[in-house]
Structures
1.
Amino acid sequence: MADRGCALEAVPLPAEVRESLAELELELSEGDITQKGYEKKRAKLLARYIPLIQGVDPSLQAENRIPGPSQTTAAAPKQQKPRPTNSRDERFRSDVHTEAVQAALAKYKERKMPMPSKRRSVLVHSSVETYTPPDTSSASEDEGSLRRPGRLTSTPLQSHSNVEPWLDRVIQGSSTSSSASSTSSHPGGRPAAAPSAAAATLTGPVAHAHIGVPVNSRVSSKIQQLLNTLKRPKRPPLKEFFVDDFEELLEVQQPDPNQPKPEGSQTAVLKGEPLAVGTAWPPSLLAALQRWGTTQPKAPCLTALDTAGKAIYTLTYGKLWSRSLKLAYTLLNKLTSKNEPLLKPGDRVALVFPNSDPVMFMVGFYGCLLAELVPVPIEVPLTRKDAGSQQVGFLLGSCGVALALTTDACQKGLPKAQTGEVAAFKGWPPLAWLVIDGKHLTKPPKDWHPPARDAGAGTAYIEYKTSKEGSTVGVTVSHASLLAQCRALTQACGYSEAETLTNVLDFKRDAGLWHGVLTSVMNRMHVVSIPYALMKVNPLSWIQKVCLYKARAALVKSRDMHWSLLAQRGQRDVSLSSLRMLIVADGANPWSISSCDAFLNVFQSRGLKPEVICPCASSPEALTVAIRRPPDLGGPPPRKAVLSMSGLSFGVIRVDTEEKLSVLTVQDVGQVLPGADVCVVKVEGTPYLCKTDEVGEICVNSSATGTAYYGLLGITKSVFETVPVTAGGAPVSDRPFTRTGLLGFIGPDNLVFVVGKLDGLMVVGVRRHNADDIVATALAVEPMKFVYRGRIAVFSVTVLHDDRIVLVAEQRPDASEEDSFQWMSRVLQAIDSIHQVGVYCLALVPANTLPKAPLGGIHISETKQRFLEGMLHPCNVLMCPHTCVTNLPKPRQKQPEVGPASMIVGNLVAGKRIAQASGRELAHLEDSDQARKFLFLPDVLQWRAHTTPDHPLFLLLNAKGTVTSTATCVQLHKRAERVAAALMEKARLSVGDHVALVYPPGVDLIAAFYGCLYCGCVPVTVRPPHPQNLATTLPTVKMIVEVSKSACVLTTQAIMRLLKSKDAAAAVDVRTWPTILDTDDIPKKKVASIFRPPSPDLLAYLDFSVSTTGILAGVKMSHAATSALCRSIKLQCELYPSRQIAICLDPYCGLGFALWCLCSVYSGHQSVLVPPLELESNVSLWLSAVSQYKARVTFCSYSVMEMCTKGLGAQTGVLRTKGVNLSCVRTCMVVAEERPRIALTQSFSKLFKDLGLPARAVSTTFGCRVNVAICLQPNRLGKLAEQGTAGPDPTTVYVDMRALRHDRVRLVERGSPHSLPLTESGKILPGVKVIIAHTETKGPLGDSHLGEIWVSSPHNATGYYTVYGEEALHADHFSARLSFGDTQTIWARTGYLGFLRRTELTDASGERHDALYVVGSLDETLELRGMRYHPIDIETSVVRAHRSIAECAVFTWTNLLVVVVELDGLEQDALDLVALVTNVVLEEHHLVVGVVVIVDPGVIPINSRGEKQRMHLRDGFLADQLDPIYVAYNM
C-alpha cells in the first residue's frame, strides 16, 4: 500500500469530487446507503483518478462495519428524506480509530460471555422522554463529544503536504493495518456480518455436567460460561511476594522493566512573542468602552438572535455605555438595607442570565465593572435541585454574594416560594434579586461619574469552574489580567476595529466571554451571538450568519462544526469565504481533529480556506493558553502527531510505528499567546521540567492569567500556582506559573500539543489513561445503533486503593436487551485492545436520564456521585472485577501444621493456659435423691398430677392474645394417657416404635409427646407442612417421617386431610404414608400400665432438624440426657413452680423443643406459649404477653426479635398507652445456634428501653446438634445478684476480621479498621465442660486461639440417629478424643469455630470467668483464596452498602462467590446494587464477587431459628427457581 499511497498522493482530487465523497461518507454513516452501494459509488467517483481501484481493495474501504439491518435492505440509496436534526448519534467517524476498534473486535470473536438475565418487568424501562429536542448532551463536561481522531476523516485520499514525513507515513499506512478485519464482499454481495462478540444466549441445555451441576439448568450453564471466560489467563501473573499474616499487603504493581521511559533532553521555558509596544492600547477596558460609547455611539456592538434565527436586537456602543452607567448608578446609590447602601466597591454580585440574552448580560457585566463591583456569572437555576446547583450555592456563599442581577423574563421563570419570592435553592445563601431591565434603573444625574477606572490588581470578575470531584470554585481575574488577556488575544487573532465575529459559545465564561464580551469591546467589534437553542433547531445557523454578516471571525466548538456537517446537505448557497479565522475553542480535545478535518473537506468547496481553522487551548485558571494563527499573522504551518496510546499511558511521547491500532492523532493548538512564558512540568511530585519526549502539565506565566481561587489561599498556593524547577532544582522564574490542568508537550516549531486534561486523568496501576480517549473508543463501536446521541461519561472510582474505570452510556430507547449486552461486551474488548486497560463497570441508563451540565453536556461529577450512592438507576450493568482488580493480596498458602504437642509446649512457654471452661458442678448443687426421682420425665408428670393436680403448666395464646388452651398437671397427664391408649390399640404399636408428631405449636403437641413416652414409643416432632406452600414444605415432612422410620403419624384432623389431599399428591407419594391417626376426638381411655424404661440410657425422643447447610440430621436423646438437660436449665435459670416464663419459639427441635415440651413438666413452672407464626398477624403479641403475665424470664428467637424491631420500631408510644410494660423482665434470652447478633440485640434493647426493658436484660444462648444447650446467660439483677448465684455480665471483644480469615484471634480496640465485635454466647450451663481443639490436628489450643468448640456434658445427645447427607463426615462427632493432653475424656464436636478467653471478672464461686465466643459454623464457612470466610461477615458488609438492600446471603459455587440480595425498593433501581455490592466486598474482604443475584424480599429462605438456609438458596439458584429480578455475572 505504501507505493499506492504515493501514487494517490500525486493526484490531487478536485474539490467537487472531494465534496461528493464527503457526502457519500455521510450517507453511509447515517445509514441512508448500504455498504455495498457506498463502495460502488465511491469506486465510480474515484475511477478516473485511480484506474487500480476498480477491483475495490478491501483495505481501501474507509471503514469496515458490521452492517445493521438498515444497511442490507436496499442496494440502491433510499429516497433522500429530510433528516431530523437530532441524528447526531453517529459522530464523526474517525477512520483510523473506528478501523482500529473493528480490528480489535475481530480478534475477540471467539470469546463468549454469559449475558445477564433479567426479569421481564424490568425491561419495560422507558426513557424519561423518549423523544427530546435534538441534542442536549455530550460526553464530557465541556459538551464536545465528537468522535475520535485519527486520519483525515472523509477520504483517505487527501494529500497532507503540511505533515512531517514520519507523521505522513504513519497516517497513510494505518489503513492497511485493519484489512484483516475488513468485510470483504461475498459473492452474494453483502458484507460478511461478523458473529456477535458476546451475545450468544444459550439455547438448549449446555452439557457441562463435569463440575457436578444440573445439566439442564440455565443458571449453571451461564456460570459455566463465566468460568470459562475466567479460566483464560488474562494478564501475565504478577510478581508474588511474602504476605505477612495480618497486614494482608495488597499486591503492589511492580513497574514493568520494559516500559518506555523518556529519553529526550530537558525542555526549556518557551517564551511567546512580546506584546506589541507601538500600538496605542487603551489604559483599561472601561476606558475603551467609554471612548467607543461617546465617539461611536451608533456602532453596533452585539446582535442577539431569537430561536428562529432572526435578529431581535442590536446593542450599539452608545446604548451599552449609557445603560451600563445607569446600572452602575443604580447599584451604588439606589439599593439600601437598613439605611446603609447595600453594596460597596469590591462586593461580589451574581449575574443570572439565560443563554439567549447576551445583551442584558453584557449590560450587567459592564455595569458591575463601572461600579467597581465584581460580577460572578453563573447558570440560571432551573429547578431547586439542579445537578451541581448546591456547589454553585457554596461558591456564592464563599464569595459573600448577597445580590443577583437578572432580567424580567428570567426572574419570572425561576422557581418561586409560596410568598411569590424566588425560591431558596438548596445550599444557596439568601439573595436579593434585582431585575435590570431599563424601566427598573435610574438615570444618573449629569454630574455623576463612575468611580476611578484604572487597570489595577483589584479583582475584575470571578469565573466559576467545576472540578473533577464536583466542587465549584471561583477563579479571580484582576483588571490588569483582563486588559492583558484582551491585548494578547487582539494581537494573536489580529482583531481590528469594526470587524464582525459570530459567537456560538456560552458568553458567560471561557472563550465566549474573553472574545465575545471583552476583547470585542476593546476593538469596537460587532459580535453576532448565536444562542444554543437556535443551534439545536438549526445547526447551520452559525454558517448562515457568517455568510449574512460577512463575518471575519467565528468562535465555535467541535460539536458545532459536526452538527453543521450533518445538516449541510442541499445547502448550496452558503459561502465561508469571508472568514479569516475560525477559532475552535475546544481544539485541545482528542476528537476535535476529526471535526476540523471533516469540516474542511466539506466546506473547502464553499470558500473555506484551510489556514482559517484555528484550534486553541484554554483553561479556567490560565485563560487562553495557545491559539493557532493564520500564516498572515506569522503562524507556522499546522502539524499532526500520531502517537502511541501505550506510550502515552506511561507519559511518554512515541510516534507510533508498528501497532497502528492504538494510536491517538492530535493536532497542534498553535503557539503560546503573546507576552506569555510556557513550560511543561511533571504531573506528580515536584514540578520538574519534563524532557522533550515526556507528557506533562502545561504551565503558563503571564500577566494575562487568572490570579487565584477566590478565598482559597491554600489551594491557590498548592494547586493553582507552581514554581517549575530544573533537574538541578533551580526555579526557572522568580514568579510562580499558573497550572492549566492541560496535559501535553511542545512539538516542532514551538507548537503546543495537548493530549488530555488533568481532570480526566485516571491512573490505573502505574499507567495513565484519559477519560476522553476512552469515550472516543467507546463511541467508535457502532454508536449510531446504540448510544443515545453519543452521551457517554467515563470517570474513575477508587476501589481497593486503585482507580477503577467506570463507563456510563445512555442507551437508545429502541435498543434491545441482546443488543445492549453485545454492545457492552464489544466496548470492553475494544478498550482492552486499544488502551490495554480493563473497564471495571459498564452501565447503560435509559435515554435522557444522566444529569446534564448547563449546556447539555453530561455532568460527570454528579454522574459519579449518583453511581457511588446507588442512584444512577441503570437498565444494564456489566462489571469486570476479575480482569481489573490485579492488586488483591496473594492467596494464603497453608503452612504445615504445628503438631499438637508443640502447640501445648508453645502455650506453656508463652505463659498461656490451655483453653477450657466449665459450668458449675452439678454434685454440689442439689440432693442426688431428687435427681434420681426425676430421672424419667413420665414419672415426673405422674408425680405432679398426683401431688399438685390443678397447678397450671401451660397457657397457649392466639394472635389476639386470648388463651386458647391450657393444661394443668392432671389434664396433661390424662390427655397423654388417652394418646398412649390410642397408639397401642388403634395403631397397634409396640415399645420402641417411632411416632411422628405433626402438630401446630400447642398443647396437643405436648400431650402427644408424653402419650408416646407413656407407651414406650419414641416421639419425633415435625413441623406441619404449610398449606399455601405444600410443594416445598411437604417433601421435608415426608423425608423426616421416612428417615426417622416412623411407624405412625399423629396429627390433627385438618392436617390429616392436608397430608392426603390432591395438592399433597402432586408434591409427594401420598400412598406411602404410615398409619395416620388424628387425636382430635380420641376416646377417654386409661392405659393398663404406664411404660417405665428399664435403663436411663434408653432412647427418649429423636430431635430432627435441617442444618443451615441443608443437611437433615436427627440426634438421639436418652432419658438420662433429657432429664440432665432439664436439670441444668432449671438450675441456670432458677425455675420453680411459682415462676411464669413466656416462650416465643418453635417447638420442633433443639432448645426450643426442650423449653416448650420438657422444662415446665420438670421444674413445675408455668409456661406462656406464644407461637411465633401468630406474630405475623400481631407483631406485639409476644411483648404484650410478657407484660400481661409479668414474666421474669422469656425466650425468643432472632427472627422474633427482628420482627419486633422492624415491626414495632415506630409503635413504642402506642404500646405504652396500651399499658405494655417490660420492667418485669429479668432476662430475655435469644435461643440460637450461631454467633450472637450484636447489632440486633442492641437495637432491640435500645428500642424497648422506652417500655421499661432493663438495659442488661437481653442475653444470648448457644446450642447445636450435639448439645442443644451449652450456654445460657441468665442475667443478674436485684436480690439474686446479692445471693451470689449471679455471674458477671456478658463481655464484648473486638477482633481483627483479617486475622480471623487466617484462623487466628487478634484482639483490637473498638472502632479500629477491620474490627469485628463478638459478644460471649452466654454462661456455660452446670455440668457442661468446653474445650477448644484444633480443627485438623485435634490438639488442645491455648486461651484466645480460634478452634473448634468441643463439649462434654451429661445432656449431650448420644449420637446421630441418621444423617441424611454426608454420613462419613459425622462419624466422630459424638466420640472425639483429644490427640494430646487429656486423651481419655470423650467429647462431642460442635462443628462451630470459637475461642475461650479468661476475663478479669469473677463468677459466683470467686473463680475468674471464662467467656466463650462463638465465631461461626465450620460447615458454613467459605474457603476462598486460601482463607476462611464467615458468610455473615460478608453479608453484614453487603447489607450496609445500600439502603434498599433488605437482606443478603452468600454462598460459593465452583470457586465463585455468589451474593444474593433482597431488594426492598423499585425493580427499576435493582441494578444500582450490582456495583455497590461488588465494591464493598472487594474493599472490606478482598474478594471478587462472581455473581450478584437480585431478588424480591422474602426469597432468602430462613428457618424457624431465624438462620439463613444458604444451601437451599444455592439449590434454588442453580435450578433457576428464584425468579430473580436481575442476575449479573461479573467478568
2.
Amino acid sequence: MESAPFPEEVSERKVCVVGSELVENYTVYIIEVMDGEHSWTVKHRYSDFHDLHEKLTAEKKVDKRLLPPKKILGKNSKSLVERRQKELELYLQTLLQQFPQATPTPLAGFLHFHLYEINGITAALAEELFHKGEQLLQAGEVFSLHPLQLYSVSQQLRLAKPTCCNGDAKTDLGHILDFTCRLRYLKISGTRGPVGTSNIQESSLPFDLSVFKSLLQIEISECSSQQIQGLSSLRSSLATMSIHRSTETMMSILVPEASEFSQWEPEGAESGCPVTAVIPVWRNLTTLDMSHNCISTIDSSVKLIRKVEFLDLSYNQLSSVENLQHLYNLVHVDLSYNSLRVLEAAHTRLGNIKTLSLAGNQLDRLTGLTKLYSLVNLDLSHNQLAQLEEIRNIGSLPCLEKLNLSSNPMCIIPDYRTKVLAQFGDRAAEVCLDSKVTTEKELDTVEVLKAIQKAKEVKDRMSSSDKKRQQPAVSLSEHTHCGAPTSITTPTTPTTTTITTTTTVCCVCSSSSSRPVETSCSMCSATWCRLLPSHLLSLSSNKDFITQLSQRLSATLKEQRRKKQEEEGKEEKEEENRSESREVQSHVEGTEVGSPSPGSGDGYFEMGLDDTVEESVCSSSTSLGAPPAEELGGHQGDMPDQEEEEEEEEEEEEEEVHINRVLWGYCLQVEEQVEQKEVCLVLTDQVLGLLCLSDDFTWTNQETDREQSPPVQEVLAGLQMDLLLPYSQLLLSPRGELPDCCFAFGLQSGPTRWYVFSEAEELRQTRTELPALIQAAESHTDPEPPEAPQLLPRSLINSWELEESQGAQGGYPAHLLLPSSSSSSSSSSTLDTHPLLLDILPQKEEPHLPSLLFLTHRHLWVLKMDFRELAERERSNADLQRSSSSWCRLVRVPLGSVVLHPRERAPQIRDRTSNTSCTGANHHHRSRHTVELLLGNLRLLLLFPLAQDRSSFLAALSQRRISLEGLKMLALPQTCRPCPHQGEHTQDHYRSRDQCCCTSTRKSHNSSSWDSSCLQLEENQPSPHLIPGLSPGLKLLAGLGGQQLLAFFHKYIALSEAEEVRQVLWLSVVLYKSPEAELTCCLLLSTDTIYFLLEDSASTLGHHTVLDIMDTGDPDVCLCCCLSISLSELLSVNVGLFDQYFRVVGRSADHIVCCLSRDSYGTSVFLQELMSALSLQQQLPPPEPSDQDFYSQFTNTNTGKMQNYELVHSSRVKFIYPSEEEMGDLTFIVAERKTPASAASSSSRSFNVLLYLLVFQVQIPSQGPAHSGPSPSTSASAPTPILQPRTLILTSTDVFLLDEDYISYPLPDFAKEPPSRERYQLREARRIRDLDRVLLGYQTYPQALTLVFDDLPGPDLLCHLTMDHFAAGGEEVPARGGGASGGAEGEVQWCVFVPGADSRERLISLLARQWEALCSRELPVELTG
C-alpha cells in the first residue's frame, strides 16, 4: 500500500480555541483540532464543556476544579469570553495530555473524533456494525461507506496495536472485518472538496478493498482510481461493478497491475510475444457501468471481462469504438453522450447486441449499423442526423422494435414520423418510434405515401414518353454495326488518369470473345477453375471502394450522355426528313417506341426505357465499360438554348449514382456456351451493373496479409463491365424452380442468363431488394407474390425424404475433380467404383461445371445441373418442376462414407507430403479453396470457387458427422506405421515436433488430472485370438505406441479438440442391429465419447449410413469403420455376470453395443474410467442458497445411489449390475438339465453357480460344422481351428457350455417385441466326476484347455434339451456331445480357449478343487507340445 497522508504511528494531537461567536443569547467557542497534517473545527457552548466534564469526573476521575467555573452575570462580556477562551483551551490540552493513548468516549465525541480521526471513525463503525450488522446482512441491502472510513480501517490494520484500544468490546475492529467478509453489496461515495469542517480531501486517501471477500456488487463514485487498492482481489466474486467520476482509463480499474507490468496477457490467452505478467480474468462480472468518467478510449483491458453482458460507457469522451469484439456475450451497450462522429462496421465489434444507445453523440451517418441483425432497441436521439436516406441503413434490420430519433435535425421535416416509418416497409407496424406506438392513422399515411410515390413515377414516365414521341426515332444499324471497333473512354476518379481502350464489341448479341471455361496450371497438369479471392468480400462494406465505384459509374453515364447529345445534334436535321422511315426501321430492329422512361425528378438518370436490350448491355473488356454511346430519345429541336442549358445543369446535378448493395460472387453466364466468372454485382437506384474480374488480376495482397482489405485502386483496375442495364429490362428467374443458394436473372428479350452464387445472407438480401427495384421501375405492372424460398426443387425430393430435407443445409457450389496424382489411374479405378459414385464424376464430354453440395443428417446430396438445358427451358417458359430430371440430377451419398482425407485433418502433414505442391503463381492460393474427400474408393477433390463455402462446408460436415447415428468411416494414413521419422525428432529438420505425423504437442484443455503419459504400450496390445480378425485399419492402430496412439487419436479420430484418451481396450463387440455377428473392435474411451473402431466386415451388415467399400485405392490411406457414442447421450451400462462383458446403451438402437471383454479386470478398469469421465461431464449446481452448509448442499449430487442393483451415477447414467433374479434364472436353467434321479442324488448346493466365463470352443473344420467366428480365415496347408463363442458355467458337480444372446437382454425401452431367440441355449454338459484329465499346451490352439471326459453311461444331462424355453418346437435335438471332439474310444474332449489368464487359472483351480472333493484325489493335469 502506498504511503498515506496520515502517518502510521499515533500522530501528535493539538487543540486550540481560536475564537468565539455570539449566537442569540449565548456564546459559542470555535475549537480547532489538529491531528498530524489534518485539522477540523468544532463549535461548542460552555454548557457542552460542563456536560463533558461531568461525564469525565464520573468515569475517569478527572479533577473537578480543572474546568473554569460558571458565571451567572456578565457571561457574554468580551473580557469574560476572552479569559474563558484561554481557560477552556488549557482544559482541553490538559485532557489530551492525560489520555495520550486511549481517548475517552465522551471526549472523542466532543472533539468529533468519530468523524475525522482514525481511531474514532473505526470505533464508531465497529459499534454500529455490532448492533446492526447481522440485520443488514440478512436484509441483503446495499451498505454505504465513505473513502475516509475505508482509509481508517486500512490504516488501523497496518498499525501494530490492539484491535480494541479503549477497552470497549463493542468497538473492536473484528466486528468490521467479520462484516466485510460477508458483505455482498457495497457502495462507496466520496465527496468533492474537503470533508465537513476539515481540510481532508477524500480523493487523496488510499483505501484497500481486499477485506471484502464475498462482494457481488460494488459502486464507487467520486474517488481516484489511483487510490483504489485491492480491486484485483474481487475478480473471482464480483458480478456487477459501477465506477463513476473516478477514472480516466478503463485499464486502471480492470488491470491495476498494468502500472507495474507493461507486457501482460489475460489468463488463458496464447501470446506470440514474451509477457511479464499473466492477469486473471473477472470470472463472474456480467455488468460493468463506467459512465460519467473521462474515458477517451476502450483499451485492451476489456479482454479480462469476457462474460460482460451489460456495458455502460455513457457520458465519457469516446471518439471511437474498439476492442469490443472480445466481449462475446455482450447484449446491452450504452455509448450515449460521447464524442462519436462515425461508427463503421459496428457488427464486427457489436455482433449480437440487442440494445444499443448512441444518444447525445455527433453521428450524421448510419452506414455502420446495417448488419446488426439482432438489434431490438436503438436510441439515436440528440445526434446530427439530417437526411431521411440514412434510415435505409437500419430499415432492413429484422428484429428492430424500438427506435428513438428525437432531437435530430431530421425531426423538423414535415411528416417526419410517417416518412421514417415508410423506410421499414411491411414492418412499420412493429416499430415504436420515439417512444410512441405507431397509430393506425400513421400506418394509413404510410400506405398513401407509397401510392403517391408510385403515381408520381408513372406520371413522370408518361410525360417523358410524350416528349419523346414528338422526336424522330434513330436507327440502331446506322450508327453501331456488329463487330465494329468501338473506342470507349472511361474517366476515373479525379486523382487517376483517363483510360482509353479499343475493343471489338458486338452490340447486337451483347457478347465479347468468351474466355476459356477452364485452363490448366502452367506448371502442372491440374485443372484450373475460376476462384474468387476471399479478401474481396470485405469491399462490400468498404466506404472508399463504394464511393470510387459510384464516381466511375457516374462518369461513365455522363460520358455516354454527352456523346449521345452530340450525335443527336449532328443528325437532327437529317432525321426530320426521314422520321417515318426511321420509325418503321426501329420497329424492325425491335425497339419499343413510346415506352415510359423515368424522369430526372426522382433521381433516375435519363436512360430511355425504349432502348433495346442490346443497347443497354456492355460486354466489352475495358476496365470499366459503359452502355453504348447511342440512346434513343432527346430534347425537342425547337427548345430555347437557355432552357437546354438549365436542363443540362439539372441532369449533371442528379447524375450521381447511389449504390444500394455490392455483391461479390461466382457467376455462370449461359448463352451458347457456359462461361465462368468472378463477378461484382452492383445494385444502384438507377441500373444493375455486373462487373467481372480480369484474367490477369493479381493476388498480391492475399499473400501478404489476409486480414487487411486489398488496395481499392488495384481492384478497380481489375474490374471489367459485363452488364449495365435498367431494371425494367431485367427478368428474374422464378425462385421456386431453382435452389435457394442460386440467384438467376436474364434479359427480357435476350438469350443470355446469369446464375450467381455468393454468401447466403448477402444473397438473401439481394434477392429481397431486387424485386422491389424492378417494381419501382415498372410501377404499372402488378407485383408478383414472392415465392417461398426452398433449399432444393421439390420435384427432386422423394416423399420419404421430406423430413430429411427440412434439416438440410448448404448449396455450396464446388467443382468435383479427380486429384492430379490419381488422374493417370482414374480409368482403371473407376471400373471398381461404386455405381452410386460414378454419377458424381464429371463426364469427359462435359465441361467442368460446378455441382451443388447439400448436407443432411444422413446424406451428402450432390446436385448435378445442366445450366445450358436450364437456360433453354427458362427461355421457352417450360415448367422446370415437371421436367427437372432433364436439367438436374440428385446423387445421395451416405454421410458415413464421406471422409476427409487425412491430409485435411493434419495440415502440417498436408503441407509436407502433398504431391500437388506446384510453384505456379496462383496454385498456392488454390489450397484455400480445396477439400480432399474419400468417398469409398473414390478420391475426390472439391474445388470451391468461394473460399467461405469451403470453411462452411467443413464446419457443417464435421457437425453432421458428430451427430450421425450409426457407423461412419474414418480415414487413417498408412505413413504413421512405422513412423518414417522415428528417431529424427531431435534432428534439425524436425526440431518442431508437430511436423511429424506420429507426435503431438497439443495441450490438454481438460481439467482432469489424468496424465496421458500413463497410456502404456501394453494397453494397446490386442489378445492373440483377436489378431486374425484385424483389418488393415485395426492393424495400423495395434502397431502404434502409447504416445503415437495419442497423437493419432487427436489428429484423425477425435471429434473435438478438447477430449483426451482415458483407456484403450481390445475386445469383441456385438451390435444390437446385427446380433448374429461378433466383430473385432478397438475401444477408445475419451473424456467426451466412446469410440468403437470395428473390423471391415461391419460395413457389410446392411447399415445404410456407409457404403460397402473398404478399399480406398490409395496405398497411403486405409479406411476403418467407427461407431461413436457421446457420453452426454449415454443412458445406461449393463454389466454382465462376473464382469465378463458389458453393454452400452444410448438413445437409439444404433447406440446399443455389447462389449465382450471376456476379462473381468478389463471390464472393471473400463467402468472406473467411464465413471470418472462422466463425473467430468456433469455440471455442479451454483453455490446458492448460501444458508445451506457444504455437506447438505453437495453430498447427494456428487455420489451415486445404489437402488435394486442399479448404481445411478451423478450424471444420471445407470450402471445396472446382475440381480439375484438373473442369477436365479441361470441356476434354474442348469437345474432343468438334470434328470430327476441325478437331481435327487445331488444336494441343493450343486445348483449354485461357482464360475461364469465367456470362452471359445475350439473346433477343427473337419470335425464339426464351420460357423463364422472372430477368426474365419482358413489355411491351404492345414485347417485353421474355428473359435465358437460359448458361455461356460461351472457348478459344484457339472460343467456346461451354452450359447448366449448378450445383446438383446435385458430388453431396451424402445423394443416393441421380444427377441427372436432365447437368451440361453445349452450346447454341452458334463459331470465333473467324469473328468479324466486336463491337457494344457499348444497342440490344438495356443493356450487352450482340453478337458477329457470319460464317456460313461449314466444320467443324461441333456434329456430335456427340447423344452420350449430353450428352442422352438420341432427343432432338431443335437446328438449327445455333438459339439465336442472325439478322442480315444470312450472319451469325449472339450477344447476350450479362455482369453483371460486370470480366468484360465481360476477355472483350473476350481475344477481341481471340485474334482478332488468328488473323487478324493488330485486332478491330473498334463502339458502337451
